[in-house]
Amino acid sequence: MPKVVAILSLALSATSRPALSAQRSPCLTNADTAATHITQVTMDLTSGDSARLARQGLPYRPTSISLVTDSATCAAVVHAYNSTSPDSTTMVARAYVLRVGTRNYVAIGENKPSVYVYFDKKYHWLAGLVSMY
User: Fold this and answer.
1) Which of 28, 42, 75, 89 is the least buried, fewest Cβ under 10 Å from its Cβ?
2) Residue-wise pLDDT tens digits, 95-131
3) Rounded Cα–Cα distance for residues 22 and 101 (Å)
4) Could you tell me which residues come within 8 angstroms of residue 4 by beta carbon, excluding any fewer than 6 positions away?
5) 61 φ, ψ to 5°?
6) Residue 119: beta bridge partners?
7) How far is it, in rounded angstroms, from Cα 99 to Cα 59?
8) Where are the domains positioned within the chain?
């Protein structure tokens, strides 16, 4: 009987591995890549047209831009990001999420590293910018 339990246990653990990998954090956090995205967002929001940015609800020259590592916040931003398009090919499971000032977030999806999608603090879409760099 112990052999049957061991085989069943092994079989169950093998089938549960995909569920564990699906539960990884929605936050992408590579420090070098995050720094590159922070630099890009800084350039977009400091050298852009201040009136256009204000019309879009984006801060001109924000006082801070930081990487978000809280899974719940990243999940909410990823959900908002995926809600911007019905096209399943643009959906992401993970993203770099940056906090911009006190009222905005920007998401950079795992498969679209040059597309910056901005949201307000309630996760409403504000703008999408494409990096030319």
Assistant:
1) 89
2) 999 999 999 999 999 988 899 999 999 999 999 999 8
3) 31
4) none
5) 55, 65
6) 105, 125
7) 12
8) 25-130
pLDDT digits (tens, 9 = 90+) for 66-83: 999 999 999 999 999 999
Q: Show Cβ contacts of residue 59 under 8 Å, excluding neighbours closer than 6 positions.
A: 45, 53, 100, 101, 103, 104
- Find the largest Cα–Cα distance for the chain: 75
Task: Tell me the C-alpha distance between 104 and 122, whole Å.
Answer: 9
Q: Helix or strand or coil: residue 119?
A: strand
Measured distance CA(34)–CA(49) in Å, rounded: 24
CB atoms within 10 A of CB 128: 16
